[in-house]
Amino acid sequence: MKSITVQNLANQFKLEIVAGAECLDREISRSRAHRPGLEFVGYFEFFPMERVQILGRKEINYLLQLSVEERLLHIGNIVKYHPPCFIVTAGQQEIPYLMKFCDEEGIPLLRTPDSTVEFIAKLDGYLMKALAPEQSIHGVCVNVSGIGILLRGKSGVGKSETAHTLIRRGHRLVADDIVVLRKLGPALLLGSHNETTREFLALRSVGLINVVRQYGRRAFQDETRIVLDIELTTWREGDLSNALELEPRFTDYMGVQVPHMQIPLQPGRDVAGLIEAAANNWYLKQNGYSAAEEFMERIQNAME
Prior knowledge:
This protein is of the alpha/beta class. It folds into 2 domains: about 5-130, Udp-n-acetylmuramoylalanyl-d-glutamate--2,6- Diaminopimelate Ligase, Chain: A, domain 1, CATH 3.40.1390; about 135-295, 3-Layer(aba) Sandwich (Rossmann fold), CATH 3.40.50. Helix content is about 35%, strand content about 30%. It has 10 helices and 15 strands. It has helices spanning about 5-15, 35-40, 55-65, 70-80, 95-105, 115-130, 160-170, 210-215, 270-285, 290-304, and strands spanning about 5, 15-20, 25-30, 55, 85-90, 110, 135-145, 145-150, 170-185, 190, 200-205, 205-210, 225-235, 250-255, 255-265. The strands form 4 sheets. The chain has a 5-stranded mixed β-barrel. α7 packs across α9 (about 270-285). The longest helix has 16 residues, at about 270-285. It is elongated. The termini are far apart. About 30% of the residues are buried.
C-alpha cells in the first residue's frame, strides 16, 4: 500500500508545525480526512483512526465549552488511537491542551489558515492522487480536444512523431516515453508524466524538444483522464480491418477497462487525423450516438 509522511503533507500545504515536530515521519496511507465529531462525544464504533484528523471551528469550540476535566477526557480518548496527525484549520490559537497531548503521545499537530471546508477539499484531492495505485507504461499520452488518449506501439513506430503532429494541430502533450497511470476510482484512470520528462518530446533525427518553449503553454498539460487506448502498429499487406467494428475491445489497466483500437501505419496515412476522428467518435458514443449502429439499422431497414 502506498503512503506519504506527515512531513510530505506539511511541505505540500505549507502547514505550521505546532507540536510533535520530531514525529513528522509518521505515515499516512488512507485518503480522505476525518472530522472527529461523534468521537468527541464518546462514539468510537466506526472511528477511522488511520486517517488525518481535522479540527475545525465546530470541534474546537465544542472542546472549549467543556470543563477542563471533560476536555482532557475527550481528547485523551481520541489521542490514544494514535492517528497519523491532527490539523487545526482557520488558524485557531486556543489549543494549548491539544499541544500538550500531542507532544506527550508523539502525534504531529499542524495548523493551516484555510477554512475547514476549503482545506478538506484540497487535502482529499491531494491524498487521492498521492495514494492512488500507480503503474508506469511505455508510450505517449496526449489530450485531443479534451479527451485523454494513450498512444502505444513498438519503439520507433512513430508515437512521438504522431504526438508532435497533434500538438501542431492545437492539441496537448501530457507525457512522452513514460506515462504514469493512477487509478482514482473503479472506472477513473489518470495519465501523467514522471516529472523528469515534463514538457519534453523526443523526436527521432531531431532530438528532445520542449513543447512549451516551442508552441506555448497551450501545448502541454500535467494530467488527463484516459478514455482511449490506441495502439500504432506496422501496416501488413493482406491484413483485414473491419471498418464496422461493433464489438468493442478493451485494455485493462489496474482493473480499469479502457476502450482499445489499433491504427496500422502506412506512408501517406494521416494518423493524427485518424486519432482526432477516434476521439470525436468516442465523444459521440458517450452521448448515445454510434455511426456503425446507425449504418447497420439503415441496412436492416433496406432489407425489410
